[in-house]
Amino acid sequence: MKLNIDRTDLLSGLARIQAIVERRGTLPILANALIEARGESIELAATDLEVGFVATISARVETEGSLTLGAKKLHEIVRELDENNVVLSTEDGSRVGIECGPAHFSLLAISPEEYPTIPGAEGVNFVSLEASLLAEMIDGTLYATSTDETRYNLNGVYIERAEDAKVRFVATDGHRLAKIEKSLPSEVEFLDKGIIVPRKGMAEIRKLCDETDGALEIGMGEGFLILRRPDLLLTTRLIDGEFPNFRQILPSDHKVRIVLERERLAHAVRRMSLVAHERSRGFRFALADGRLELQASSPELGEAREGLPVDYSGSAFESAFNARYVLDALGAMGSKEVVIELSEPLSPAQFRPADDPDQVAVVMPMRL
């Protein structure tokens, strides 16, 4: 195999796969990038067996073929090259040559025959979805996924078709829950039964949204979610598990409802977090006589207190929450004002954007 490729194009593709390749895995081949050259382009691929990535990049192919190289080292080398044209060629059965101007490298490679197969788009039905809309839904839920690997069914975002041609994203780690719904231009039938997309796969899809102007195509293969655009294919394995009944977690009513400026509340909670107990991150949340009082303390640091005026005239109400959870929920909302709905001191609190009834964050209270 021998090809010439623009350094900028190759560097962009290699940078994109760095978060996907396995650097300390049990299979050495998963630390490599697969490069297949044919026609007037190459396919640059990477996978960790959970997330797969295939990018099509224009190239001047002299001899067709394929090779694999360590993705991290290849990225480092290409990043330091000075000239635009990069030549890749197989030198023998175990080495690959990299030339750019006066620089020449000869690197050990692993046979491309050992590289795992990345699911393709053959036989998959796709629907079109605006990248900006998909990004908004991921931002509204990904933060609430669990990082506890023993609760694997919570390690991703649950996606299902909702009523009125909407799609629903839900995530929870058992201490908080995030839900968002959006209308789609067409029905997404493969979401009828609901799927769980793992956290890493969702993070890669979110990156793809930032790189895409316009729409992405989304479809489902056998155990995989697949996204594509003309120059790129991204696949993520689905979590084989049952997502909990999130409807039981959502509060059905509330006794207290207050509206606050989102940024002002977020800054106040962030100030409380500076002195909150390092492990619990807890702060008190008290309402009385038209005022919201926030308070946090720790034996090692001291105490912080701040009051915010609110439209509240009911009886005194006090609860406590994890500051990190509240900040994550507020940060995922883009509205100027946020609605907070409360029932009992030890019942979950609901946070909603004042201008979007289809997004909600639920935060469980804590004891201080």
Strand content: 35-45%
Largest sheet: 8 strands, antiparallel
Secondary-structure content class = alpha+beta
Number of helices: 6
Strand order of the largest sheet: 6-2-3-4-17-16-15-10
How many domains make up the coordinates?
Answer: 3
- Name the helicity range: 10-25%
Q: What is the overall pLDDT average?
A: 94
Kindly provide the radius of gyration, computed on alpha-carbon positions and rounded to a whole number of angstroms.
25 Å
- Write down how many β-strands occur, each being a DSSP E stretch of 2 or more residues: 25
**Shape descriptor:** elongated
The stretches of 5 or more residues where confidence is low (pLDDT under 50) are none
Enter the CATH topology name of the largest domain.
DNA Polymerase III, Chain A, domain 2
What CATH first level of the largest domain would be assigned? Alpha Beta
Question: Distance between termini?
Answer: 65 Å
Which second-level CATH architecture of the largest domain applies? Roll
Oligomer status: single chain
Identify the CATH homologous superfamily of the largest domain. DNA Polymerase III, subunit A, domain 2
Written description of the protein model:
The chain is an alpha+beta fold and 368 residues long. It has three domains: 2-114, DNA Polymerase III, Chain A, domain 2 (Roll), CATH 3.10.150.10; 126-246, DNA Polymerase III, Chain A, domain 2 (Roll); 251-363, DNA Polymerase III, Chain A, domain 2, CATH 3.10.150. It has six helices and 25 strands. It has helices at 7-16, 71-80, 131-139, 199-210, 262-273, 323-331; strands at 2-6, 32-38, 41-47, 51-58, 60-63, 65-70, 85-90, 95-100, 103-108, 126-130, 156-162, 166-172, 176-183, 195-198, 215-220, 224-229, 232-237, 256-261, 282-288, 291-298, 302-309, 317-322, 337-342, 349-353, 359-363. It has an eight-stranded antiparallel sheet. Strands 14-11-12-13-25-24-23-18 form an eight-stranded antiparallel sheet. Strands 5-1-7-8-9 form a five-stranded antiparallel sheet. Strand 2 (32-38) and strand 3 form a beta hairpin. Helix 1 (7-16) packs antiparallel against helix 2 (71-80). The radius of gyration is 25 Å and the shape is elongated. The termini are far apart.
